[in-house]
């Protein structure tokens, strides 16, 4: 059986995977917290935790009153 993974970690991982796969590209806007909460059947607080950690890591960029976007350089190592 797989070890328990908190939902916020799964959300964070899945967003990172979509960015790595090119599904989400730099400048792309993420769904709203409410839309993501509905998608994962969880609370906005759980979604916010995943988003906030990705913003802290520089993967995402929050713009007050506009939304959350994929940062221009989601992975410093990608440039070589």
From TrEMBL:
Pfam families: GntR
SUPFAM superfamilies reported for this sequence: Winged helix' DNA-binding domain (SSF46785)
One example of a Gene Ontology biological process annotation: negative regulation of DNA-templated transcription
Gene Ontology MF annotations: DNA binding; DNA-binding transcription factor activity
This protein's UniProt keywords: DNA-binding, Transcription, Transcription regulation
InterPro entries: Bact_HTH_transcr_reg, Tscrpt_reg_HTH_GntR, WH-like_DNA-bd_sf, WH_DNA-bd_sf
Coiled-coil region(s): none
Domain HTH gntR-type stretches: 5-73
Keyword Glycoprotein assigned: no
Name this polypeptide is given: GntR family transcriptional regulator
Source organism: Micromonospora rosaria
